[in-house]
Design goal:
- With about 80 residues, this protein is an all-alpha fold.
- The chain has one domain.
- It is built from three helices and no strands.
- It is rod-shaped and about 75 Å long.
- The relative contact order is 0.06.
Amino acid sequence: MKQNITLRIDKDLIKKSKVIAAQRETSVSKLLSDELAKLVLRTEDYEYAKRKAKSNLKAGFQFGGKIRASREELHER
């Protein structure tokens, strides 16, 4: 579902964005919509990665192998 919104944007920015939109054979509205969609996707991807990283840190990492010496044996002087 699409919905219209009203924005207040500087006139010079609007002029420049119209030129860019024309070069890309699209509209300013489509440019804004695409950029907002990218922003939302990047934010969602970042949040997912952050949750995943925190989960991995809580679970810990198992690299295999066994500790064959005690801490005291390893740190004898």
